Amino acid sequence: MRPSFLSQVGYTTSTLDARKLTRIIEGASSGIGLETVKALATASADFHILLGSQSAEKGQKTLNDIQTALGDSIKGGISALQIDVCDQNSIKAAKDQIEAQFGKLDVLINNAGIIVYEQVDTLTSLRKTFETNVFGQLIVTETMEPLLQKSAKSYVIYVSSEQGSISERLNPEYEYRQIRGDHYRMSKAALNMLSACHRYNYADWGCRVLAFNPGWCVSNLTGEKGREMRIKLGARDPKDPAMALVDVVLGKRDADIEKPAMVDLDGGLVPW
Ligand SMILES: NC(=O)c1ccc[n+]([C@@H]2O[C@H](COP(=O)([O-])OP(=O)(O)OC[C@H]3O[C@@H](n4cnc5c(N)ncnc54)[C@H](OP(=O)(O)O)[C@@H]3O)[C@@H](O)[C@H]2O)c1
């Protein structure tokens, strides 16, 4: 019988099984994560997508909205999974649920991320930013590690940012040089190092680990006003990085993943 903890679309109980390739995407209730769930769900019947959301209610609503919007074009399956990357109990519970239902995890997309744009003191901003963008990602990956080890071909993808490139920060020609965002930049630089450490640590069991640059996109990252500003200034559709992430999990970017740099959505690499 199907366990009740995951709400699902796209599968009947009989077709939901551990032979499917299981992908979890945290922070999937909006922006790049949401579009990635949709892109993967319509890409292959072999995928079962776990739509990670820090709020169970929001995850369920997102799942219902996807079903309404995509209907029969969903080829694989999607389940909502509550996971707050800043809450170790929720991460452990998510791991236990995946283990009970699937026994393994093939792809982990560490997508959850924030920019602190409210007026708070510097230390509060740094702590909040790093807790979500770095500490949470490390704990999620290391908690899921035993499940990833059971996959025949596993990927850990960190959704980073070119804002975290130390080389570009000091490049006088760099397009986004004028943007400050020091705390966010520092967190993504640390995330890049985390991806390098995990690439090294997991090499002996063949896990492919990468930091991914999704480009500047329309999303909720800087709130409603930020969203409007992004649209006005021509930020990209989050479907673009979503399609690039589908290519990554289909193995089309494996050669780039070997290299010491961020994998860019448009092909090629962005320097650390
Ligand atoms: N958009 C860009 O231009 C851009 C550029 C470079 C990199 N990125 C990166 O892309 C990733 C996705 O961002 P986005 O642009 O799509 O922004 P978004 O629309 O704000 O999506 C971020 C997602 O992260 C989730 N999240 C935040 N804190 C979380 C937590 N503690 N646990 C679980 N989920 C949490 C949010 O959930 P709630 O809605 O429930 O808070 C939301 O679903 C981030 O890592 C961001 O840094 C974005």
UniProtKB/TrEMBL annotation:
SUPFAM superfamilies: NAD(P)-binding Rossmann-fold domains (SSF51735). InterPro entries: Fungal_SecMetab_SDRs (IPR051468), NAD(P)-bd_dom_sf (IPR036291), SDR_fam (IPR002347). GO terms for biological process: secondary metabolic process. Pfam families: adh_short. GO terms for cellular component: cytoplasm. PANTHER family: CHAIN DEHYDROGENASE, PUTATIVE (AFU_ORTHOLOGUE AFUA_5G01530)-RELATED, SHORT-CHAIN DEHYDROGENASE/REDUCTASE. Belongs to the short-chain dehydrogenases/reductases (SDR) family. This is Short chain dehydrogenase/reductase. It comes from Xylaria bambusicola. The lineage of its organism: Eukaryota, Fungi, Dikarya, Ascomycota, Pezizomycotina.
